[in-house]
Amino acid sequence: MERLLDQVLSFNESFVEQKQYEPYITSKFPNKKFVILTCMDTRLLELLPASMNVKNGDVKIIKSAGGVVSTAFGGIMRSILVAIYELGADEVFVIGHYDCGMSSIDPEKMMAKFTERGIPKDTINVLEHSGLDIKKWLKGFDDVSESVKGSVELIRNHPLVPNIPIHGLVIDPETGRLDLVEEGYKK
């Protein structure tokens, strides 16, 4: 049986040889001048852009588990700042989704999976004793709308974010319907 990596590389070789990349050629600057922060859920891969009339080259899309900004100075926030200052984004859309896996994360169960997959319990203990509240770090959220509002507020109040619209929405991963949670033009 062919390994997954080999399958991907084999397809890619054919993709490049046949110049199937040509319809996707664009610049690194978003045509529609906004950045989307959303969840990495597989149901959103094509549905979210289609539901917003977004095509290749239109926007910057940042994905993370839950579409959450959990810290003011982490990688997600840095990516948003790069999109604004280096790539010309003038608005930010934080888009969560209903039926999100992050709403059902049980930190205790996930930690058990760490050890099942070979992570020594000592490693987890070292992390906990070094000041990381691992249960809080792994915890998802209870309400997707509240989670979106929290990320919008963190971005909006960030000391390095200019006065631009920061919007919050929730998408239905079955229909693509967008529900407005926070309108950024009013702030």
Overall shape: globular
* SSE ordering: HEHEHEHHHHEE
- In terms of DSSP E residues, the strand content is 15-25%
- CATH class category label of the largest domain: Alpha Beta
Sheet with the most strands?
Answer: 5 strands, mixed
Tally of individual helices: 7
CATH superfamily of the largest domain: Carbonic anhydrase
Structure notes:
- With 187 residues, the chain is α/β, with parallel strands linked by helices.
- It has two domains: 35-99 and 144-186, Beta-carbonic Anhydrase, Chain A; 106-139, no CATH class.
- The chain contains seven helices and five strands.
- Strands 2-1-3-4-5 form a five-stranded mixed β-sheet, with helices on both faces.
- The longest helix is centred in the N-terminal third of the chain and has 14 residues, at 4-17.
- The radius of gyration is 19 Å and the shape is globular.
- The termini are far apart.
- The mean pLDDT is 95.
